[in-house]
Amino acid sequence: MTGDDEQERAVALGGTPVPTTRERWLARLAFAAATGAVVVLLAAGRGRLTVLAVGVLGLALMLAGAWWFLSRRGVVRWLAASLVVAAPIGVLVFYASQDRLNDVVAALLLAAVALTAARAALTRSQPPAAGMPERRTPPPARPRLIMNPRSGGGKVARFGLVAKAEELGADVTLLDGTGLIDVAELARAAVVDGADLLGVAGGDGTQALVAGIASQHGLPFLVISAGTRNHFALDLGLDRDRPDLGLDALRDGVEVRIDLGLIGDRTFVNNASFGAYADVVQSPAYRDDKRGTTLQRLPDILSGHRGPRLVVRVDDVLVEAPKALLVSNNPYALGDVAGLGRRARLDTGVLGVVAITVDSAAQAAGLLAGHRAKSLQRLTAREVVVDADVPEIPVGIDGEAVLMPTPVRCSIQPLALRVRLPVDRPGLVVPKALLDLTMLRHQAGSVRRAARDEAQRGRSR
C-alpha cells in the first residue's frame, strides 16, 4: 500500500472513507463496463430495441410458464413446461437469426464485469459486516450431547461422532428408539442431572427444540451439523461436510449470543413457513415423494381451491391473502427473488418476513422486478401474527410439519441463546456490497475533487 493510500484511508469525507487508488479505478471500470454494455446493444444496428424487448419477453414467458406449470394440471401443465423450455431457446434462436448473439453475449459479459467491479469498489465504503461478537470461555465440565443416528443418512456413525465426543468428556444420548422420543424432555433431564452444556447432532428441527431448553436455563448450546441440510450450522459458519469438526468447541471454543424465533410456545432457529409450502409438507406422502406430492397438491393451493386464506399482521403492516409466507429468525440476505439466501447475523433482534402473493401468470412475470415486485414483500418485524379463516393451519417449523391453532403469533427473543463454536470455522458469511450509484460516482470522481480541494487550500494559504 502506498503512502497516499494510507493517508486516504485515514481521512473521511462526511463520515465516508476516502477511496483508495484501487477503489477509484474499480469504480471507473464499473462505469466503463456498464457504458460499454449499453453501447454494444445500441450500436448493434437495426432492431436494437427489439433485441432488448425480446429478451425481457422471453424471461416473462418463462416465469408465466412456471406459474401455469405449478398451478395447473393435465395438458395445460405440460404445455406450460414446454413454454419454460421453449422461451429461452426461442430468444437465442432469434438473436442468432438477427446476427445479434455475439452482441448480446458481449453485453452480458460487460454487465458482469461492471457488477463485479462495482461490488469490489463499494465493499469498504459501506458499514462493515462485522461478525457476531465472540468471547472466549472455558471448556464445559459436564457437556451432554443428543445424537440422532438416522440424521443426514447416518452421519453420526460415518464420522465417529459418539467416540470423539466421549473422548472429549461429553455424555452422549442416542435417539435410537423405534417410537416417538421427546427430545425436549431428554434435554430437561440432562439439565436436572447437572449438564453445563447441551448439544445436538441432528436436523434443524431437533436443534431448535434443544436450543429452547438451553436458552431457558442459560446454558451454552453446541451445534453439530449431522442433519441433511444444516441451514442453522451453515449460518453459524460451521463446516456442513465435517460435523466432527464442530466437536472441537468442547476443547477450544468461543461463545456468541444469538436470537431465537418463537412461534406459539415453540422456538425455531431458522424459519416458520405458512401457505403453499406448509400445506404441501403436511401430506403423509411428502417424505417419500417430495417432488410428486408437491406437483400434485400445488394446483389446488395456488388456485385458491385448497388451503386457508391467510391474513398477516407484520408489526403495523397488514398483508392480505399471501400464497406463501416465510418468517425467519433474522432476515435472509438479499439476492434472490424469494429472499432465501443466508443470514450474515443472527443477533439483529428482528424477524425477517417474505410474503409472496401471486394469483396469475402476469403477477408471476412481475417477479422480474425483484424486491420491487408488487407480488413480493420483504419486511422486518418484532412480531408477526398469522390469522386465517379456519381454526388451525399447517406450519413448517424448521422443516417439520405441524398444525397450529389460529391466530399464530411469531416473535423474536433477542440474544436469548448462548452458542458455543469452534475457534476455526470455514464458512462465515460475507454479504455482498449493495449497489449504491451515488457512492460509486463519488469514488469514480474522487481524484478530480481531491485535486480541486487541494488547489483551493493552496490559494487560501
Structure explained in plain terms:
Keywords: Kinase, Membrane, Transferase, Transmembrane, Transmembrane helix. Pfam families: DAGK_cat. The chain has 461 residues and is α+β, with helices and mostly antiparallel strands. It has 3 domains: 135 residues, no CATH class; 132 residues, Probable inorganic polyphosphate/atp-NAD kinase, domain 1 (Rossmann fold); 142 residues, Tumour Suppressor Smad4. 40% of the residues lie in helices and 23% in strands. Strands 3, 4, 5, 6, 7, 8, 9, 11, 12, 16 and 19 form an 11-stranded mixed sheet that branches. A hairpin with a 2-residue loop joins strand 1 and strand 2. Helix 2 crosses helix 14 and helix 8 runs parallel beside helix 9. The chain starts with a helix and ends with a helix. The N terminus is likely disordered.
List the helices and strands and how they pair.
Layout: H1 3-9, E1 12-13, E2 16-17, H2 21-42, H3 48-71, H4 74-97, H5 101-122, E3 135-136, E4 143-147, H6 155-158, H7 161-167, E5 171-174, H8 183-192, E6 197-201, H9 204-216, E7 220-224, H10 231-235, E8 253-263, E9 266-268, E10 271-275, H11 276-281, H12 290-302, E11 310-314, E12 317-320, E13 324-329, E14 351-356, H13 361-366, E15 376-381, E16 383-388, E17 392-397, E18 400-405, E19 408-422, H14 437-444, H15 446-460
Parallel strand pairs: 4-5, 4-6, 6-7, 7-19
Antiparallel strand pairs: 1-2, 3-8, 8-9, 8-19, 10-13, 10-17, 11-12, 11-16, 13-14, 14-15, 16-19, 17-18
Helix pairs in contact: 2-5, 2-14, 3-4, 8-9
